[in-house]
Amino acid sequence: MIWWVSWCALAARAQEPEAVTLDDAVQRSASVATIRAADAGVRAASERLDQVQSARLPVVGVSASVNLWNSAQTVSFLPSDQPLDCSAFPAEFAALCAGFGEPLVVRDQVT
Questions:
Q1: In Å, what is the CA distance from 109 to each residue of 19, 30, 61, 69, 91?
Q2: For the chain, which has fewer Cβ within 10 Å, the N-terminal or C-terminal residue?
Q3: Burial class (CB in 10 A: 0-12, 13-18, 19+), 95
Q4: Do residues 109 and 72 make contact, with C-beta atoms less than 8 angstroms apart?
Q5: 53-87 pLDDT, tens per residue?
Q6: Which pLDDT tens digit goes with each residue over 12-69?
Q7: What is the rounded CA–CA span in Å between residue 83 and residue 100?
């Protein structure tokens, strides 16, 4: 019950108007403006700090491209109507010799 009476007394006191002079009003508004300006300065400094710290991080870039050609580009070292005679080469080079008989793909259709 005592706290209720105390609360009612505080509520009544808070509702009482306070007489303020012009000088007091100007001083109070200046302090509020100063606080707001200081707060804005703190926020701006924090943002500049974030910007400077992010500039020290490594930068990663990625790029890609795809080319689609009409057809694959191939080259053949022998005329297509003549078979390659690999009998003149040693046996170790038989696979290499067989590879020259087929066209070599220089560029695929999709690169």
A1: 88, 74, 27, 5, 34
A2: N
A3: exposed
A4: yes
A5: 877 777 788 999 888 888 888 877 776 666 677 77
A6: 555 667 787 878 877 777 677 777 888 888 899 999 988 888 777 777 889 998 888 8
A7: 10
